[in-house]
Amino acid sequence: MQLTDIKLKALKAKEKNYRVTDGEGLAVVVKKNGKKYFVYRYYFCKKGKEIHLGAYPDLSLKNARLERNKHKAILSTGADPALEKKKELITQHVNNSIIFRDVAIDWLEFKRASWSPDYWDAVESRMKRIVFPKIGSSPLHTLEPAFLYSVITKIQTDFTVGLAHKCKQYIGLVFAYAIPLDKATRNPVNDLTGLLKPNKKTHYPAITDPLELGRFLKAVDHYNGSMIVISALKLSVQLFCRPGELRQLEWSFINWDQNRIEIPARIMKMDTDHIIPLTRQSTLILKEMHEITGWQDNAHYVFPSQRGFSRPLSENGVRIAIRSMGYTKEQLVPHGFRATARTLLDEVLHYPIEIIEQQLAHTVKDVNGRAYNRTKHLKQRAEMMQAWADYLNGLQDTDKLQ
Fold first, then answer.
1. pTM of the entire structure?
2. Residue from 309, 308, 288 nearest 300 by CA
3. What is the pLDDT of residues 170-224, one digit of tens each?
4. In whole angstroms, how far apart are CA 173 and each of 115, 117, 198, 248, 261?
5. Bridge pairing between strands 304-305 and 26-30
6. What distance in Å separates the CA atoms of residue 218 and residue 209, rounded to the nearest whole number?
7. Which of 141, 258, 273, 346 could anchor a disulfide with 95, C-beta 3.0 to 4.6 Å?
8. How far is CA 93 from the centre of its chain?
9. CA distances from 46 to 28, 42, 49, 292 (A)
10. Using alpha carbons only, what angle is made at residue 244 by residues 243 and 246, rounded to the nearest 5 degrees?
11. 8 Å CB contact between 28 and 22
């Protein structure tokens, strides 16, 4: 006769352990101390075996029968349910030991060689500040789409839409890294496509009015800061490379003989070498800097940190100087000098967009769809850079501007 909850509750302890069957191998064992356990009894290879299912009432009668049926199904395939349960427990233990933070740290180290130091630092910082506190201690197999969606939408609310998209991308890349290493079976981030608010691209605040740019350049000349920061400010405008590329500029990148800077791919955002032709003005600034930071035996960076020559100028160095000069983050950021150059080279000096874009180290393709190599249009780019430097000199005399 099958068991019921009423019958189970009525079972009392006796001097010896005893069992009451429910049918099809399921039984409840009543211990001398009154505790009750469900067991499943079966025969495998003509030998009687038993699996402990769980204690009643923590495991309900209904769920005990479901467990019994699961083991019966395994038995019907010719496998031993007890052995399969051991395998399942081992797998669960292994899965629980694969923690998101550990895999993410391995992934970051794997990517270190292929990313620029600035980009790597930015990703690591976001992972440690935002992602790890939320899911760092979670086993990978527990991170289901619904839970990750709640985590990423919280980032979207607490920070920005753009940062939420970045964190979603990083989490997905960690899973993509884990799958071929047999640390994950699927990428749950793939199920979140289209669920976040669209990430609207914003433009960096920049000065695009010639009069205002002239006032800024004069303010730089009168800025009471270190020679390193002032020179970095001037070259930010003149060379219009990315802030990270300028900060990490090394003396070894400067080809004095060919009058140009040769930035290797490891520094560049687009992971390709880049050439910046030097002008009379930028060469003079670099030679002045060499007397300050380039002659020492341990000289490495053109713009070293105040903490020592072994590290580059802080990413806040130029930004803080701009703020000290009275410009808010809504008016100007270091990255905005690229937009300044692009706008005025096009609208005022009338250089071809193709030449400007290539000097900005953007991907520019020819009529056949092939990306230009780093030396393409180098003569025209050198002429453009000198014209830009001369134009900036003229802007500093703002009284003459109409």
1. 0.55
2. 309
3. 999 999 999 998 888 899 999 988 888 876 666 788 999 999 999 999 999 989 9
4. 14, 18, 20, 27, 34
5. unpaired
6. 14
7. 141
8. 29
9. 23, 9, 9, 88
10. 65
11. yes
